[in-house]
Structures are given as structure tokens and as C-alpha cells.
Amino acid sequence: MLSPVVGGTVRTLACSSWTSVLPVRFRSASRLQSPAEARFHSASASEAGCPRVLITGGLGQLGVGLASLLRKRFGKDNVILSDVKKPPSHVFYSGPFVYANVLDAQNLCEVVVNNRITWMLHYSAVLSAVGEANVPLARAVNITGLHNVLDVAKEYNLRLFIPSTIGAFGPTSPRNRTPDLSVQRPRTIYGVSKVHTELMGEYYNYRYGLDFRCLRYPGVISANSQPGGGTTDYAVQIFHDAVKSGKFECNLRPSTRLPMMYMDDCLRATLQFMEAPAESFSMRTYNVTAMSFTPEELAQEIAKHVPEFCITYRVDPARQAIADSWPTSLDDSLARRDWGWKHNFDLPELVTTMLNLHGCDTRVARAN
Ligand SMILES: NC(=O)c1ccc[n+]([C@@H]2O[C@H](COP(=O)([O-])OP(=O)(O)OC[C@H]3O[C@@H](n4cnc5c(N)ncnc54)[C@H](O)[C@@H]3O)[C@@H](O)[C@H]2O)c1
């Protein structure tokens, strides 16, 4: 029987001070959930229509926008943003925010219990370029943190979303229209930790019935947040610099083609995937994408709007090596078939939208 192994494993991981956060009448409950316990920890029937959402690592490039979309959908107070950083005041006053460190399983349990969380979107991570510069940190946050998150999600029967990345592929993966299922031998700690995430999440789904959902995002481009140390950061920074100074120094070669997606599409895909019935899934980890372009092609598109725009190249060998090992495009046909994924932004719409948003920001900044 497998159950003794499972029990032992769980006991050594999450929620070491379990008794301090549960009502007395549940203190003697076994750590292995019976279906009845799972129902207690999950949304009750009356709550089922409206999830109580926790976003970890929510102060990075993607989390604040995600919270804003989910709050529109589920109500401000049902979406709790968390991070280990101090939130800026506009974020702090825009809705509930708590401290949650994914390296501290007890802290995670308390946040989940105290806020009656039913969905967790786990965004804490150390991204590719930063991870190569600090492997122990990336290993801790991306792997130890993941283990805590998986165990808390299992204990409380949460629906768990974790983004993966094109970085989960490597030099031996097919690079053009990379399919969902293919060789995954990444050469970065970020990629290795994301393959681990995909496999552990799928295993918890198979073994324990955890409602694990995972999308492999391409590079995500957003106007309102700073890039977080990834290899596709150039495609975010280029807009800041084009509007501010009319020039940009790119750290990747002009011909480096990578899959990309505008933030709105990325967040919409995530919400749509989270709301999709599990029966529509043929797997638990899907590629999603919108477009693929090179720095040269992006610069040409920007120059249509900013004629004086000038791009120069000073290649960062570390980032270039990472980019060269990643797919140039993704095949996301299964996401489109299974749960109706459809992107709205191609390169021309992306550039127009980003420049408009930066133009507005710039005018506001000057006025202040
Ligand atoms: N941004 C992209 O282009 C992109 C592409 C593919 C996948 N993703 C994935 O999306 C997720 C979010 O990406 P992002 O760009 O917002 O990342 P980011 O680096 O901008 O933000 C990550 C956040 O995690 C937080 N964090 C670090 N250690 C933590 C800890 N111990 N506990 C709790 N939080 C901690 C950081 O403070 C930071 O705010 C990540 O999982 C990333 O792998 C992002």
C-alpha cells in the first residue's frame, strides 16, 4: 500500500504547527485527508460560485495585473495579493494584501486558513537570468517553495495554478512550434525548477486528485510593471526606452526569435483556464502563446510609430545562451482545442498598445 509513505512524506513538510491554526474540534484529524475533510477545507457549496483567491509573489511583473483582473471578476475582497516585499501604496490600498513567504509553510497555512482561500495562484519565483546569478536562491524559492505550496494546496484542497515557461524547454527540444509534449532538458536552474513544477503538479493531480493547472507562458510584455530578471526582459524595457530617449541597447542578438504574449492575453488565458471545467482538459500543463518576433522585427515595428527610434546591440553572453536554448515559437493548438484559448494581440497591436500606454504614462509623469 502506498498510504504510509504518503503520510510520512506529508508530515515532514507543510504546516508543522497545524494545531495552532485549526479549530480544536479538528485537532485530532489525520494528516491524510478523507473526502469529508477535503470538503471541509475546500469551498463549501455556498462559496463554490466565488473563489477566495491567494496570489503568491504578487508584487512582481505579473501579480498586480492579475489581482486587478481577478478582482473585477470575483470582487475586490475575494482576491488577496501577497509577497515578501513591501507593497507600494497604490497596491496596498487597491485591495487585501498580506505577507506570505513560500519558504515558510506555516505562514502559508495561516494565510490560507485565516482567509478561507480556495484558489491559489503561485507566482513567486526567481526568473532565468537572476536564477543563473544566484542558484541557491532560485533552488530555494522555485523548488522548496513549490513543495510547500503543493502540500498546502493538497491539505486544503485548493485549486492551484502555477505558471511554467518556455524556459522549461532546452537545447534538445524542438525549437520551432515546440509541442506540449517534447524533450525537456533545460540548462538553467529556472528551467529545471519549472520542469520539476510541471511534473510534481501533475503527479499530485494523478496521485492525490489535486486540481493542479499550469500554463507555459512565453515572454510576457506589460506596460505597468518592471521586468523581473528574465531573458525576454528586453521586449519590456525597449518600450520604456523608446518613449523616454528614442534609443535602446538590446542585450540579445537582432535575430533572436522568441515566443511572446501581451500581458492582457496572458492574464485572460490564466483566468479562462482557471474557470474551465477540468473535464475539458486532456492534460494539466499547456503551452499558450500569441506571437514570435526578434529584437530587429520589434524595433522595426516601433520605428513605424517613433521614426527616430534607434536600436543598438550589446549582447550579454549569459542571456544570449539562455535565449538560444529556448523555443522560437510554441505550438499551443491543444489549449485552443481543449478550453478555447485565443489570443487578441499580435505584434502590430502589441506595439500600438504599449506605446500608447507609455505615452500616457510619460505625459502624466511630466505633468507631475
Ligand atoms: N514575466 C514573464 O515574462 C514570465 C514568463 C513566463 C513565466 N513567468 C512566470 O510567472 C510568474 C510570475 O512572474 P513575474 O515576472 O511576475 O516574476 P517577478 O520576478 O517579477 O516576481 C516574482 C515575485 O516573487 C516574489 N518572491 C521571491 N521570493 C519569495 C518568497 N520566498 N515568498 C514569496 N514571494 C517571493 C518576489 O518578491 C517577486 O515579487 C513566475 O512563476 C514566472 O516564472 C513569467
TrEMBL record:
**Protein's pathway:** Amino-acid degradation; L-threonine degradation via oxydo-reductase pathway; glycine from L-threonine: step 1/2
Pfam families in alphabetical order: Epimerase
A Gene Ontology MF term for this entry? identical protein binding
Residues of the NAD-dependent epimerase/dehydratase domain? 53-288
Give the Enzyme Commission number: 1.1.1.103
> Which GO biological process entries does UniProt record here?
L-threonine catabolic process
User: Could you tell me what reaction this enzyme catalyses?
Assistant: L-threonine + NAD(+) = (2S)-2-amino-3-oxobutanoate + NADH + H(+)
Q: Which InterPro entries match?
A: Epimerase_deHydtase, NAD(P)-bd_dom_sf, NAD(P)_epim/dehydratase
Q: What does this protein do?
A: Catalyzes the NAD(+)-dependent oxidation of L-threonine to 2-amino-3-ketobutyrate, mediating L-threonine catabolism.
Query: Which family is this protein grouped under?
Result: Belongs to the NAD(P)-dependent epimerase/dehydratase family.
**Protein name per the record:** L-threonine 3-dehydrogenase, mitochondrial
* Organism from which the protein derives: Chinchilla lanigera (Long-tailed chinchilla)
